[in-house]
Amino acid sequence: MQDIRFAIRQFLKRPGFTLTAILILALGLGANTAIFSVVNAFLLRPLPYQNPGRLAALFEDSPLGPVGNEPFNEVAPGNFLDWQKLSTSFEEMAASVGGASNLSSPSDAFEPQRVDNCACSSTLFSTLGVHPLLGRGFRNNEDRYGAPHVVVISYGLWQQRFGAMPDIIGKQIRLDGENYQVIGVMPRGFGFPYRTTQLWIPLLASITPEQQKSHSNHFLLVVGRLRTGVSMAQAKAEINTLAARYKREHPEAISGKGGNVVSLQSYLVQGVRTSLLILLGAVGCVLVIACVNVANLLLARAAGRTREVAIREAIGASRGRIIRQLLTESVLLALAGAGGGAFLAGFVTQALTAHAPGADAVLASRSASAGPAVFVFAFAIALLAGVAAGLFPALQSSRSDLANSLRDSSRSATPSRAHGRFRNLLVAAEVALSLVLLVSAGLLLRSFSRLYGVKTGVRVEHSLLVGISLPDPAGNQRAKTSAFLRLLAERLQTVPGVVSAGMVSCPPVAGHCSDNVFSIEGRPLPPGQLLDALKRGADPGYFSAAGIPLLRGRTFTEIDGVGFDEKHPKAGAVVISESMAKKYFAGEDPLGKRIYFQIEEERKKQLGEPVSRYQIIGVVGDVIKDLDAPVEPTFYLPLLDGQFDNVYIMLHTAVEPHSVTAAVREAIHRLNPDLPLFQVRSMEEVIGRSASDREFSMLLFGSFAALAVVLAAVGLYGVLSYTVSQRKSEIGIRLALGAHASDVRGMILRQGLKPAIAGLLAGLLAAFFATRILQSLLFGISATDPLTFTLVPLFLLGVSIAACYLPAVRATRIDPNEALRTE
Predict the structure, then answer these.
(1) Residues 328/7, Cβ–Cβ less than 8 Å
(2) What count of other Cβ atoms lies within 10 Å of the Cβ of residue 299?
(3) pLDDT at 203 (0 to 100)
(4) DSSP letter for each residue of 365-387
(5) What is the spatial distance between Cα 373 and Cα 171, in angstroms, rounded to a whole number?
């Protein structure tokens, strides 16, 4: 307590020094605490489910091999039902698929809205170990095709849409034009498989018996709870055995390559793990730079306290007692910095959890606010920072020469050579770490600029996308959907301000959506070899509205399609992309060729029906699915046939795109008032969302790098300013003996630039190896991009020269007479 009281008095005597040190540490400690809070929420904290360590995610190995989404290929319904029935490694197993529904009220009590849903098996809640807050979950007899419609809603939807009405259980709501009975409300914060999921419906009730038997249509996320004593490896071996058995029984089937079993937590965080660990390393560098800066401040302060320390020693203080006092001061500074950093950490944590890449995973719905682990971490790194920043200054101060220190000579405050070398070493370390961060930020900036230079294949200016979700197009509903879309296409052409309008099943530059395995008629493939392409639906106006060029043949007309009467199939029309023509029809004319789909073939064989063929009628330009994804083969089917439930309207406007939204909404609601609009975005906004993850990483790295550069510049400036003040007499004598001001400036600049240049060289070597881990975040450039590795050191050298120049100029303004009188 005596040490603490004395330290506080010392801080109050020098408020400028105290506030500077606290601010520097607050920046470093606050950034580290914020990043650790998110890392703890995403990577370290267990999932909010019962015994989360026994939860596993199950996948199929992709039949396409390494080019597919291996090892996280979703599971076909037939395989899931086989695994659920035959597996002995799991206590329970459940499947789910995310989607969206149009929510409305049977009594028109509220406006229809688009909500994210999850079709899940009746065992999902019990597998996760989560029970409804109100009501109950699904019963087995409700999870079957043709069962009465029931739904479980989220806590947030119950609160916001239904006003937390206590008698919600048993009430009717309307989803996609059908009445559903509410049977349960989930607890606050529960969201699966995404944080935005607001309602759950039985899985098998929404899948036809034919689809339930499919082993080729992969779209399910399967979760299982391992039995006690069963490892992930044992469960994976069993799934592989079941897959091999199916392959033996059905050698012609697409499925059967094997399976994969991983912990549910590792799967959910696989999209954010790398980014967060890299950010944690970056803020660690910032904290080291902050500690180095404070160490330099303490060294400068220690030189002025040499006489005080000498007096303490003279009256009997031991070296350990002095070191304890000085370390107490540095640790108190660090704890004060940690308190200030807590305010910064709150803002950074909120931004990270809202915008972190991959934040749609279920973990993102969990709070990343301060908990016991975060407090322990913050306290631990504050103590570590205080000791790291204060240990060497304390050791140096306790080694004073008692006789010389008690003399009233200005030279007694002059630092030793060892002291000076250590300070230069600290400056070099600051510059080196700053260079590593700045090079990383430069690489991300260059990558981001390349990303925005990618040719999307569609018109970006004056283009608007509007999404609508239609009822599941099955049976007679498909004819109604087709009639609705044809009428809507006519209405859209008459909207004021619209130049052209079209519709597509998957918006461009907005993700994968779906792909399909296909075969070319008359071209049998060797066993195990498959052809695959992205699947899209488009109407006759889409290619013109999106600005996609027609390269060969023609696009769709209103009479193209596969027909509604599947008992009398005819060859449908299909348009393919340029990359699909080059990959699968190299050296030949694709027009007139026919393709068919294995999944459709499997389904129709079960029904005893012939398989439809699709004739290629045209070749159009390529469209990318994501800014950072390569061009992939794509085929388009006639959307006006009514076979797609999600439809995105593409509008080319003569006015500001969003200004036509109201007219488009009115045109849609005149045809169907229960259809809400969603994802109403201009193409500029769509492209911005596609680049948002990389932009976020770039901004964070850029912020940390800028902070590091500022701290390094301040550290270099502080060292030289202190050196000039300590060498005031020497410089005055040099000037009195005839030294030119340019000579003094050059001497100070050389003294400051030596450690800076040493730091630049060390930083270049470190950056060469450290930036390799950034490769997964880069696009279009290598981790050793020559331009970045040239410009960044030059920029940092310029910053170093600027930091050195002011102390050098100040040195030339020393009055020789004053210096001689002091000496």
Answers:
(1) yes
(2) 24
(3) 94
(4) GS--S--HHHHHHHHHHHHHHHH
(5) 43
